[in-house]
Specification:
Layout lengths: L15 H35 L1 H8 L1 H4 L10 H11 L4 E6 L8 E6 L5 E6 L6 E6 L4 H11 L4 H25 L20 H27 L6 H9 L12 E5 L19 E3 L5 E3 L1 H5 L6 E3 L5 H10 L7 E3 L7 E6 L8 E6 L5 E6 L5 H13 L5 H29 L18 H13 L1 H17 L4 H7 L1
Antiparallel strand pairs: 1-2, 1-9, 2-3, 3-4, 5-6, 7-8, 9-10, 10-11, 11-12
Helix pairs in contact: 1-5, 1-6, 1-12, 6-7, 7-11, 7-12, 13-14
Length: 476
């Protein structure tokens, strides 16, 4: 029977708990190295977009606000005024004035592909000006926030960083836990008076991270439904409605989400997977020719006008601030969409452009439990649900993210050797990886991009870094 070989006299036998701690620390470090630039970008752009209503009021007062008069002009007349000023543009939607002192907003696509919002005085039909929806401050901020202004690839990168931020939160919470003796100072109260820069920045990083973990986690999770990969898959699984809602309603192959184009939020997330109904043209037959033995002449009835659609929306108790999207072709429908601050008031109507029949009427009570949770989360995420207090709460979350990113980067820079990256050393025994890898693997199942990136990181760490001493020395 062979004897166990004792460790060399100078070997350090590391405890399992210490190996696990260093493993988590290593994952936290690498995740932070990748995520910090993205989180800073998301926090800064998100902070700006939170206050879009206030910023728009300051930046476009002459376009947004009017002197109330009476009565309101027909919306068809207001629309005609816009079309006279922009004869080569295609009208996409109209938002009736939300208050007596606000202008009507008309969405256009110009012949060269630009997207404009034109503001009209609803009492005089005077065109007050336009706003380029591709290049104004809020549009640029939103595009950076959602896709880094590089399209689908940027969307995937933002989603990947957001998912890895969850790994940061979980690992950071573990690292925050006292390892030996619990003390209030440094655990619940940051020692900002400390003369040690290491202690100061460690506490500035760890303590706000503990208090903000739920708030920041909420911010991340409620932003993911809009992501291109995970959000699209999540919507296809959960955003469904009973089939009987569409009985005897002609459907097109398109989905309602096609109305959310170019960063323009027209319809709620919960209805994006709804099939778009089709309008049914009414055929008129001239009977005189038919009786004479000739083939009948056919034509279609004229579409209903815009004023009728808006009146129908108001009669259907659609809250103020709704928009009307125009039919794209002869079988398209009018879509009335209310996307208010309170998601329980959301309404989506699809209306036949010829008969004026409501082909679909979807409201909060028609949503399933998951779409309701998503819509409520989105409203709070965007700072819309309970006014200024909601905006300030989400601003606090963004501020915590900025503090965590900056303090984490400073902590790394202070302990980093002059000629190396300074990553925490890999634990001596491989089984120390099992638990953290299992945790991240679960996240990888829930968030596939995390899983794919996890496999890539593991392969690099085990197959490359661990086998090249010079690279290992530089990293550690």
């Amino acid at each position: 029977m062979s004897k166990a070989i004792p460790p060399a006299p100078d070997a350090v036998v590391e405890s399992p708990s210490n190996r696990f701690y260093r493993t988590v620390w290593r994952w936290h470090f690498y995740a932070g190295l990748f995520v910090i630039p993205f989180l800073l970008m998301l926090a800064i752009t998100g902070s700006i977009y939170l206050f879009k209503p206030q910023l728009d009021a300051v930046m476009y007062p002459n376009q947004l606000f009017v002197q109330p008069l009476a009565p309101l002009l027909p919306y068809t007349q207001q629309l005609q005024a816009v079309q006279r000023n922009y004869p080569q543009a295609t009208t996409t939607k109209i938002t009736p004035n939300v208050a007596i002192d606000r202008s009507t907003e008309v969405g256009l696509t110009t012949s060269d592909g630009h997207h404009l919002t034109v503001f009209v005085n609803p009492y005089t039909a005077a065109v007050l000006g336009d706003r380029d929806e591709d290049h104004n401050l809020q549009a640029i901020v939103r595009r950076i926030h959602g896709e880094l202004m590089i399209g689908r690839m940027g969307d995937y990168l933002v989603e990947l960083a957001s998912c890895w931020a969850l790994v940061l939160l979980i690992s950071g919470l573990y690292l925050w836990l006292p390892r030996h003796k619990f003390t209030i100072l440094g655990t619940l109260v940051p020692r900002v008076w400390s003369q040690s820069r290491r202690v100061f920045w460690r506490d500035i990083h760890a303590v706000p991270g503990f208090y903000g973990v739920l708030l920041v986690g909420f911010l991340i999770l409620t932003g993911l439904p809009w992501s291109g990969f995970w959000g699209e898959t999540f919507a296809q699984v959960w955003s469904h409605f009973p089939a009987q809602m569409w009985d005897e309603v002609p459907q097109s192959t398109g989905l309602t989400k096609t109305l959310n184009q170019h960063g323009d939020q027209v319809v709620p997330w919960a209805v994006e997977q709804l099939p778009m109904p089709r309008s049914t043209p009414t055929i008129l037959v001239t009977t005189d020719h038919a009786h004479a033995g000739h083939a009948p002449e056919a034509g279609t009835t004229a579409p209903i006008n815009l004023d009728s659609v808006i009146a129908l929306a108001q009669e259907s108790s659609v809250p103020a601030g709704f928009s009307v999207s125009f039919p794209e072709d002869e079988i398209g429908v009018y879509t009335v969409s209310a996307f208010p601050n309170d998601p329980t008031q959301e309404v989506t109507l699809h209306i036949d452009q010829y008969s004026g029949n409501v082909l679909a009427d979807v409201r909060w009570e028609d949503y399933g439990l998951v779409p309701k949770a998503v819509e409520m989360g989105i409203a709070i995420h965007m700072g819309k649900f309970f006014g200024l207090g909601n905006q300030l709460l989400m601003l606090l979350a963004c501020f915590i993210v900025v503090v965590l990113c900056i303090s984490g980067a400073i902590m790394w820079w202070q302990r980093r050797p002059a000629d190396r990256l300074g990553a925490p050393a890999m634990p001596a025994y491989g089984h120390a990886w099992k638990t953290p890898v299992a945790i991240v693997a679960v996240l990888g199942v829930l968030f596939p991009l995390v899983g794919l990136s996890l496999v890539a990181v593991l392969l690099v760490d085990y197959l490359v870094i661990a086998r090249i001493p010079a690279l290992q020395r530089w990293l550690n």
